[in-house]
């Protein structure tokens, strides 16, 4: 209990005196140990029942291992939520280069708007979109060829069964596809959904092999009649062109007319799908953002965010609760150090919307983490646990640099950043000089000998620095818990939420910020 854990610190000096007890306490209060998370498998089971996932493209061919892992896991969950809520529109907040957006659109045929504040990101997403179309066509062709090849091989084993099933499928299609004229003469023998896009073809005759292709496709996708009706409902009313009007001199038979209409439908469906993989938009999102001003055809939808930075994760949840059109949310936050905190500074800002705390419970307590704690929350304990150690030398360089800047230049705070200078530096002297230039400080008054004196003065404390940072790593999950539970409590306080929970989506070694806040209205 708390009394036992408090003995890790000296009662008088408040210094840490029992490191082992400190580590045990930190583990005790970690999210994995508190039992408040809902397992991903349980969520998918509740949303999807016994339905199988969609087979399609492999994201690792388009993105690195970490991003591939994140996109594949999250997109499956998003699709399941969208299906459960009966929606087809997704808004990806902080979409960046569009990895998740384009995958959701291509793999699951969802209409996705990706919103990012950086125009360079959305411009890059447009270009990436263009390149993906080429790969996507290849995927479609390859997938269709493989499916047909496999189905033709299986067809030879059960010709009678194929013929019976084909007849049943055709009868079901004709009975349900009310949008098609002269149903008694129409036969659609081949409807092959290719990873989210529909490819339709009409055949005048059927063979047992082609019949089995239909059956094999049906078993992997949804029912044939549903697919036809779906594509007819999605397309505008003028999508099916009447070719007979342009052939006045030739009287076409009714079956030929239907065939031509279906061919036109196939072409327009493919063009429609390929032209709009998704829509990258540039806009800065705040808690007061009116989505209707950004998305003109806003309809019932869900919001998603894959590693939404700082306050953006909190604002995503606020927009979700405020807008009736948004039926669900799935948000994975990151960059806790960039959160704005209501009680961090003593100044009163009544109109400002803060990133932390969100829930009334912590607001009433006036809770504050502080920047150092939020920085610690960004550390990756699981990576350190498997041997991916902290960059002690670069942290040491940065710490000594700060001493130099304070001693020599009298600077204690700066809006400028050193950035990734360590990886480009050949020595500590080189690191200091590069950093001073970035900070726009004159390095001519600082001889090499002076720089090295500082290095030698603090070199013996490098182990101390490493130990300090390891303690921060151990504590990191506890601080992340506080931030995530604050967001969950905020959702629990809302009256229009049917269900909300925390779900561990990713492997924390591959993706340290692995927890999603999910809610359904």
UniProtKB/TrEMBL annotation:
Domain Methyltransferase: 66-173, 255-342
InterPro entries according to UniProt: Methyltranfer_dom (IPR025714), METTL25 (IPR052220), SAM-dependent_MTases_sf (IPR029063)
Any Pfam family: Methyltransf_32
Superkingdom of source: Eukaryota
Coiled-coil regions listed: none
Designated name of the protein: MET25 protein
Gene transcribed to yield this protein: Mettl25
